[in-house]
C-alpha cells in the first residue's frame, strides 16, 4: 500500500531551525512535494524534489533520498508566520499526489 | 509560481440546492485539474481527477452523479455539488497541474486554488 509517515506535531522557537522528517512508501515514484497549509487555507507549494540531494530555496530547504524513501524539510530562522501544517506529498506512478495528515508546526516566541 | 483562482471562496446554501465551484489556472494551461475535499483537522482527500475534454475520473466512494465535474477548457474546471446536504459541508480545494519545462528539465507541479468553504444548512 501507499503510506506517508510524518510527526503529528512539532514545536520550535522563533529564530531557530527545525527539520520535519517524512518517510514514504508509494507505488512508483515521480518526485516529492512539500506544501505549507495555514489553518483554514489551501496548501501552498514549497518545494519539489525528484533527484536525491538537497534543494535550497531561501529559508527553506528540502532533502530527498529515494533509496531510503525519506525526505525532510528544513526551516531556518523561524518566524511566527511559519506556524502552519507542513505536508509531505510524494507523487506515485500515476502522477497522483499521496497525502498524509501533515505535521503541525508551532512556533513559540 | 503559477496562480490558480477559485470562486466562490465561501458559500452558504440550503439543503437540496446545487452549488457550482469554479477553478481557473490564470497564467498557465492545465490539461489536468484535481478536486479535493478537506474536513476539519483531516488530510486532503482526492475526490476526482479532471482532464480537459474528457470525463473526470472519480476516486472510490465519490458519487459522480452528485459531484459533477466539467473541464471544458485548458484553464477552467467546475465542480457542481448537486442536491447538497449538511454532510457535504466541507472545504473544497482544486489544484491545477503545471507540466512545464524543456528538454530534461521538466517539472510537474500541482498548484492549489484558495479553496471554497461550503456550508449547507
Explain how this protein is built:
Chain A has 109 residues and is mostly beta strands. Chain A is built from no helices and 10 strands. Chain A is globular. Chain B is an all-beta fold and 121 residues long. Chain B has strands spanning 4-7, 10-13, 19-25, 32-38, 45-51, 57-58, 67-73, 76-81, 90-100, 107-112, 116-120. In chain B, the strands form 2 sheets. In chain B, strands 2, 4, 5, 6, 9, 10 and 11 form a 7-stranded mixed beta sheet that branches. Chain B has a 4-stranded antiparallel beta sheet with strand order 1-3-8-7, with no helix packed on it. In chain B, a hairpin with a 6-residue loop joins strand 9 (90-100) and strand 10 (107-112). The chains are: A mainly beta (109), B mainly beta (121). At the A-B interface, strand 5 of A face strand 5, strand 9 and strand 10 of B.
Report a brief summary of the structure.
The complex is a heterodimer of chains A (109) and B (121). Chain A is an all-beta fold. Chain A has strands at residues 3-5, 9-13, 18-25, 32-37, 44-49, 53-57, 60-65, 70-75, 84-90, 103-108.
Compile the SSE list and pairings.
The complex is a heterodimer of chains A (109) and B (121).
Chain A (H helix, E strand, L loop, with lengths): L2 E3 L3 E5 L4 E8 L6 E6 L6 E6 L3 E5 L2 E6 L4 E6 L8 E7 L12 E6 L1
Parallel strand pairs in A: 2-10
Antiparallel strand pairs in A: 1-3, 3-8, 4-5, 4-9, 6-7, 7-8, 9-10
Chain B lengths: L3 E4 L2 E4 L5 E7 L6 E7 L6 E7 L5 E2 L8 E7 L2 E6 L8 E11 L6 E6 L3 E5 L1
Parallel strand pairs in B: 2-11
Antiparallel strand pairs in B: 1-3, 3-8, 4-5, 4-9, 5-6, 7-8, 9-10, 9-11
